[in-house]
Design a protein that fits this description.
CATH topology of the largest domain in chain B: Rossmann fold
Helix content of chain B: 40-55%
Strand order of the largest sheet of chain B: 7-6-8-9-10-14-15
CATH class of the largest domain in chain B: Alpha Beta
Strand order of the largest sheet of chain A: 1-2
CATH superfamily of the largest domain in chain B: Response regulator
Number of helices of chain A: 13
Largest interface: A-B, 43 and 39 residues
Number of strands of chain A: 2
Radius of gyration of chain B: 23 Å
Number of strands of chain B: 16
CATH topology of chain A: ABC transporter involved in vitamin B12 uptake, BtuC
CATH class of chain A: Mainly Alpha
Helix content of chain A: over 70%
Order of helices and strands of chain A: HHHHHEEHHHHHHHH
Number of helices of chain B: 16
CATH architecture of the largest domain in chain B: 3-Layer(aba) Sandwich
Oligomer: heterodimer
Number of domains of chain A: 1
Largest sheet of chain B: 7 strands, mixed
Distance between the termini of chain A: 21 Å
Distance between the termini of chain B: 68 Å
Shape of chain A: globular
Chain lengths: ~325, ~450
């Protein structure tokens, strides 16, 4: 990173930090109230990261921006919840995982293989098609109802430090469990990418399809693996989101929140997906609560994109993304 | 050469078949009354849209099956999927209007707003039972809109009447958590007027489509601690709101939904969190034991002709509301026939019928919906016909009424309705008709 870019990044974060604490400085907001919003924002951010992880995985390994990740989350959650009518949770999870691997194989055979070495935009459009297909197909097979997914996540919130602050600080235990699951997932993925030969092969394919093929890395198998891993991530996200919101069509809309997350964090970085998620979650909740009233409310959806766009202006590759320099 | 001849012959044959199909269609149109059904069976609002559509379509089917149509004239209907999107709703309207429909029920306030400008030119009635523009009660300006059963302004006033019964509202705080759309914004003018009159503070908290992200909203509710929360949601926004309420430990007993936030798809996904949740119920709730329901079973479901995939849906809140909307459409046509004869009606004739509806207690009983409607009388000055609602509460398994019937206060609302309608008339260059001269 050049010195000027570094300075701009530092200035951006300093400004962000100042904006975050400004409600306490200028609006007379008390610390516990502010902290509650911060915790809520960070917890939401963790959930966005879960979807963003799937996007990053596929982009990292295949250079494809997988628009279907949200649809995969919905598809995995729907499959799981319907299977749970007939079998216990653990068995349903296992069968859903098999279904997601089968889906990965089908995507590779029917969509990606015919498009090897095509432009990125072509592959992106193909994933758009996969997304619409999964949405429609999922609704035909399972209907459009809201299904309840009970995997034992705690629903009651905890009030912390109620002796120190009036009313205490509310923390959603469901979000805390989700954050722990996300942390476990990230740790597993980091080990997979860094320490296994398959992980290293995935990274090689990400750098150059043709070069990877020329040294004997089986591209098709790698793609099946990476889509399967993304399917597994989608399943985890589907379980967490589905338990929170019910399994329903809107789950894939939540997945759109992963877009500003990867823009901010970088398309190729797993830590970027996490940090980006936290920043977006924090930014949108603070903005909605403290800036929202100035705009008539309802700003959190677009504010996340504004935050990502501003960041793009001086760091197009995102916070942890790889800088790509093409010779022309 | 031979090939070109074959292509020409095929084209001529195709044109002939197309022409024949169009002629057959036109012939059928001449004998049937066409009622389009705008629905959303897919997308984020489908869980709520499906039962409404099933109830609406089932009633049209029932009239055809049981009575052979309306006074012998069969009803033709066609569904068009809007996905609760205004653009798609307008697209459906434009596509279906060539079939000479007499009345549309858009099931969306946003679509209603868009069609309000089109319907007068096309002479098509808009029946918006329990939704739509509240000021369209004033038929002197809104000649083609019929916000029957109750408007959102009625709903807002009735909710305030209800919570006022629990204690003086002066100095209290009421939060409106609303779908950030024309539907959700509709009650705001009335709640603002009432906040001045009653002395309560109004908090406005919009939730963007589709309403699955509400954490920030409910954290504000936790911090501001309003005395009551009015929920003006739709689709998945409702169950999410109920879940978020438990996540911030807000008491469900202090939450009140409008009638589109108080049906089975709103409370069932929220599980135990929904127990004790209250909502407006118009005049009906989840009655499933009325004569109309028995007829639905006898004429449709026992013969495998019902629309709902599961017959347990018959009698659910939104199924009943769709069915009642269809009843109002059919009764408007029937009323028109009393004046114009038992034949296929035009839009103008059905408009007259909708404006002269008189559904008394006896007729309600004949229709098989006793206890689900209040006596109903529309006129040029009141296109709503009824302005009553009551509260029902979810006990974890069933809805039950927990208040008496309230009637909206038209001493407060009527001047607001007229002022808003007049403003619309000025903007659009409409000259209001003199209702005293309308027959």
């Amino acid at each position: 990173m050049s010195a000027s870019a570094r300075n701009l990044t530092i200035a951006f974060f300093a400004l962000l930090a100042f904006a975050a604490v400004s409600p306490m400085l200028f609006q007379g907001v008390r610390f516990p109230q502010w902290l509650e919003i911060v915790i809520g924002g960070l917890m939401s951010g963790v959930l966005y990261s879960l979807v963003a992880l799937g996007l990053v995985l596929i982009f990292k390994a295949s250079g494809v921006f997988n628009f279907a990740q949200g649809a995969m989350v919905l598809f995995a959650a729907l499959t799981l919840v319907k299977l749970m009518d007939h079998m216990p949770l653990v068995a349903a999870l296992a069968v859903t995982l098999v279904v997601m691997v089968a889906l990965a194989w089908l995507v590779e055979r029917l969509v990606l293989r015919p498009l090897v070495n095509q432009e990125g935009i072509v592959l992106f459009m193909a994933t758009l098609g996969v997304a619409y297909f999964l949405n429609g197909f999922g609704q035909i097979v399972w209907g459009a109802d809201v299904f309840t997914l009970d995997v034992g996540m705690p629903k009651e919130p905890k009030i912390l430090l109620d002796k120190m602050f009036e009313g205490g600080i509310l923390v959603s235990m469901e979000d805390v469990v989700a954050a722990l699951i996300a942390a476990l997932l990230v740790a597993s993925l980091a080990i997979f990418f860094q320490k296994t030969s398959t992980g290293r092969a995935l990274r090689a394919v990400a750098d150059d399809h043709q070069a990877a093929q020329s040294i004997g890395i089986p591209l098709n198998r790698i793609w099946v693996i990476v889509w399967s891993v993304a399917g597994m991530v989608a399943l985890v996200a589907g379980v967490v989101w589905g338990s929170k919101l019910g399994v329903q069509f809107s789950l894939q809309q939540v997945a759109l929140k992963a877009l500003p997350v990867v823009i901010l964090g970088g398309f190729t970085s797993i830590p970027g997906a996490i940090v980006g998620g936290l920043l977006i979650g924090l930014g949108e909740k603070l903005s909605e609560v403290y800036l929202g009233p100035l705009f008539g409310g309802g700003i959190e959806n677009w504010f996340a994109y504004v935050l990502a766009l501003v960041f793009l202006l001086f760091r197009p590759e995102g916070l942890f993304g790889e800088k790509i320099i093409d010779r022309v | 050469m031979k090939h070109a001849w074959r292509i020409k012959a095929a084209a001529v044959a195709l044109a002939a078949v197309g022409g024949l199909a169009m002629a057959a269609d036109a012939l059928a149109q001449a004998k049937e009354i066409f009622v389009p059904v705008l629905v959303y069976r897919t997308g984020p609002y489908a869980p709520n849209g499906v039962p409404w559509a099933d109830g609406f379509v089932d009633y049209l089917k029932l009239v055809n099956e049981r009575d052979g149509g309306i006074n012998g004239v069969k009803i033709a209907y066609e569904e068009c999927e809007t996905g609760y999107a205004t653009d798609r709703g307008v697209e459906c309207y434009e596509r279906l209007k060539s079939k000479k429909p007499v009345a549309f029920s858009p099931l969306s306030t946003g679509i209603t707003y868009a069609l309000t400008e089109k319907a007068p030119g096309d002479h098509i009635v808009l029946i918006t039972a329990g939704y739509g523009r509240a000021d369209s009660v004033d038929g002197s300006v809104f000649r083609w809109n019929f916000p029957m059963m109750g408007t959102y302004w009625d709903g807002a006033d009735i909710l305030v009447q209800h919570v006022k019964k629990k204690g003086n509202l002066k100095g209290k705080k009421i939060a409106l958590v609303y779908h950030d759309s024309p539907y959700g914004k509709e009650p705001i003018p009335v709640l603002e007027a009432l906040s001045k009159k009653e002395g309560f503070k109004l908090m406005l908290l919009p939730v963007t489509h589709p309403g699955v992200e509400q954490k920030a909203t409910w954290l504000q509710i936790r911090q501001q601690r309003p005395d009551y929360v009015f929920l003006w949601g739709w689709g998945v926004m409702n169950s999410t709101a109920i879940k978020e309420a438990i996540a911030v430990a807000y008491p469900r007993l202090q939450m009140y939904g409008v009638w589109w936030s108080g049906a089975e798809p709103d409370v069932v996904p929220a599980e135990q969190a929904a127990k004790g949740y209250n909502a407006l119920a118009l005049a009906h709730s989840a009655e499933n034991d009325r004569p109309i329901h028995a007829e639905m079973m006898k004429f449709l479901y026992d013969k495998g002709k019902g629309t709902a995939s599961d017959k347990k849906e018959v009698g659910q809140v939104l199924y009943n509301r769709g069915m009642l909307s269809a009843i109002l459409t059919v009764e408007s046509i029937r009323t028109a026939m009393k004046k114009y004869g038992n034949k296929v009606m035009t839009g103008d004739q059905v408009r007259w019928g909708a404006e002269h509806l008189n559904i008394d207690a006896n007729r309600i009983k004949q229709l098989g919906v006793a206890g689900m409607m209040v006596p109903f009388h529309t006129s040029c000055s009141d296109h709503g016909g009824a302005h009553s609602a009551r509260i029902h509460t979810w006990d974890g398994e069933h809805w039950s009424y927990t208040s008496d019937m309230y009637t909206a206060d038209y001493k407060l609302l009527r001047p607001m309705v007229e002022a808003s309608a007049l403003k619309y008339a000025k903007e659009k260059g409409i000259t209001p008709v003199d209702c005293s001269k309308e027959k």
